[in-house]
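Data availability (excerpt). The following record was deposited with the supplementary files.
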Amino acid sequence: MTQIRLRNSLTRKVEDFRPIDADNVRMYLCGPTVYDRAHLGNARPVVVFDVLYRLLRHVYGAEHVTYVRNFTDVDDKINATALARKEAGAAGSLEELIRARTEETIGWYHADMDALGALRPDQEPRATDYIGAMIAMIETLIEDGHAYAAEGHVLFRVRSYKDYGALSGRTVDDMMAGARVEVAPFKEDPMDFVLWKPSDEGLPGWESPWGRGRPGWHIECSAMSYELLGASFDIHGGGIDLQFPHHENEIAQSCCAHPEGSFANYWLHNEMLQVEGKKMSKSLGNFFTVRDLLDGHDGEKGIPGEVIRFVFLQTHYTKPMDWTAEKAAGAAAKLDDFVRMADRYCDFEQAAKRAPHEAILDALGDDLNTHGALVAIDKFAGQADLVTDMAVGLDFLGLISLEEMERRVQQLRSKTDGLKELADTLAALRANALEAKDFAPVDAMKQALIAAGVEVRMSKAGVELLPGPDFDPAKLEGL
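Predicted structure:
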C-alpha cells in the first residue's frame, strides 16, 4: 500500500497520513460562494484536492472514501443580483429568484470544473439546506457559554476557546494588534465573530430563536461537515486565504460545540495563484474566469481544460503558482507529444488492466508531488516499453482518460495515413536533390506542408510528417 504523507498546516510538519477509520476516509473542502463564474484562482484548490481524492480512492478503495465540498448560497452578492432581477420585473419571490441564481451559477461551476477533469465530490451540500443544523449548533454554543445573543445577532466568544490561533500560529492578542475587525457596540470583545445576524424584509431570512435572520459564513461549514462527516474526520482543505479567519473560526466553534470530537486531523492549504508574475486583479487587466480560458477571450483562442490542469499540476500545491501563456503553450505541446507516443507504442488493452506505476504513486504519496508525477510520465514517454504506463498515469492524474487517449490516437491515425505517402514523396525529392544539388523542389513541398499545419521532421534516418494542432488536410490537395 502506498504510504501517503501530507503537510499538516496545524502542526506545520509533513506527516504520515493515518485515517481515523481506513474503511471510512473523510475529506472536506471549502467550496465556492456561487454568485458568479469561478475565476482561475477558484479552480486551483479544486484540482489539488481532486488529485488527493483520486489518490485516496486508489489506496483505500473508492467505496471507502467520502469527499464533501460545499456550496455557499447565502451571500450579499447573490442577494443583490436577485434583487436587481426582481426590480427589473422578474417573476417570483426574492427567495425563488435567489434559488434560481444559485442554480444557474452552480451549473456553470460544474461545467467548468468538469472541463478541468475534476471528479464530482460524493456530497455537495448547499448552505441553505442546513439552516436547521446551524441553528442547533448555535443553540449548543450559547448553552455552553461559548456564544451569546445581542440585538438580534449571535456572536462566538473567541476567548472561550483556549486554542484559538493554533492553526494560523497567532495569539488572540497578536491578532488584535492592527487587526481589521468589525467594531460593534453589542460585541463583548472586538475579536468575537458573528454566528447569526438579522435580516430585514429586503433580505432572505429564516426564523430562529433570535428572530428572523441568516447565518454567518463560518458556521456553515462547521454545521455541514458535522452532519455529513461527524465530529471527527480526516482532512479539511482550502486555499491559504481561508486559513484565517475562516478555518480558525471553524475549529473554534466546532470543537466547542462538539468537544467529544477533534474536528479535522489534517489541514491542507494550497497557495495562491498569480498571472504572469502578478496578483490576479481586475485593475491590472489580468483577471479572468475559467470559462474565459476555456472559450477564449480578448481575441485569443480557447485553452483546453487538460492544458489548464497540466499547468496547475506543474507547481506543488504549497507553492504560489504563476499562470503564463508560455506555460500553457508548453503544456499543450507536451500533451500532443504524449498522444503521438501513445499512437506508436501504447497497448490500450493492457492499459485498462494496469494500476498506476509505482513512480507516480510514490510521487503523489510524497505530499502530492504532482510535478514529480509529471516528470515520471515524461520519462515513460521516452521509453517505448513504458508508454502504456504513461497513458495510465495521464488517466490517473485526470489529464487524458484512456478512452479519450484511444479516441485521439484513432483520430491521429486517420490524419497520418495520408501523410505517409507524402513523406515518401518528400524523401524521394530529397534523394534527387542530393544528386542534382537543387533543393528548390524540396523546399517548396516542405513549405506547402508547413502551411497546411504539418510538422516536418527530416534527418539521416528519413522523413517524418506529423499533424500539428492547426493541421488542415484540405490544404494538401495537389501535393
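Summary of structural features: The chain is about 45% helix and 15% strand.
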